[in-house]
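Data deposition worksheet. Section B asks for the primary sequence of the deposited chain exactly as it was used as input, without tags or linkers unless they were present during the calculation. Section C holds the resulting structure in C-alpha cell form. Section D is free text for depositor observations; keep each observation to a single sentence. Incomplete worksheets are returned to the depositor.
Section A, Depositor: J.P.
Section B:
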Amino acid sequence: MAETQETSTPIILVPGFWLGAWAWDEVAATLRTDGHDVTAITLPGLDPVHTGRSGITFADHVDAIVEAVEAAPAPVVLAVHSASGFSGYAASDRVPDRIAAMVYVDTAPGVGPLDPDFDADEKPMVWSEIEAEENLDGLSEEQKETFRQRAVPVPGGVLRGSVELTNDARRDIPSTLICTGFTAEQYQTYAREHPDWAFLAGIPELRNATWVDLPTSHWPMWSRPQELARIIGDVAKAHAGNPR
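Section C:
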C-alpha cells in the first residue's frame, strides 16, 4: 500500500502586471513534479485582451487573491510577483490566519496606491519602457516575444486604488523576499532611505523576513524557473503542518 505523505502547504502563485496565470507555467509544473499542490491565478482584467477593464478596481484584485486563499484546503504559501506585492500584502491583512508564509518575487509589500495620478482606463505594456526600465537578464528572445504577444493591459483602477490595512497580524507572517533585479541590500537600503515609496513601504512592517538573492531578470519565472521553484518549494516544505 502506498504511503500518503503531505510534503508541503498549498502554494498560490500570483503574477504581476500584464500577466496571467500562464506566466507561472514552468514554475508550477516543476513544483507539481516535486509533489506540491499549486494554483496559479489570473487577476481580474488580466485575462484575454477582449475583457472589459474600466470598472475593475484594486479591491477586486485583493478579493480575487483572498478567494483563492480561502478556497485552499489549508493555510497557503502565497507567492506574489512585481506589482501584485500590493494586492498580495493587502490580502494578507484580510486573512493572515490562512497564509502560512508569503513569498515576494522581485517585489515587496506595497502600501497605498501604486500610481494615484494615473488617469487612463488601462495601462498597456510598452516594450520600449520595459527595455529602458527593467532587468531582462537571462530572458531569451522567444520569451520576450511571448511576453509582448500575451501581455494584457492593466486596469487603471488597480494603479489608483488602495485599501486600508488594519490587521497587525499580517506583520508576523513569515515572509521571504526573493531579490532578482535588485539585491537584498539595495531593497533594504531603498526602503530605509525612501519611506514614502509605496512599492517598498511595507518592508519596515515585517517582523519575520528572510532575504534571498537570485540575480536574474525581473521575471525569474522565465529566466531562472528551476531555482525559483526550488526556493518557493522549500518555503512550502518548511511550513508544512504549521497552520497559523
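Section D:
The CA atoms of residues 118 and 160 lie 6 Å apart.
The two ends are 32 Å apart (CA to CA).
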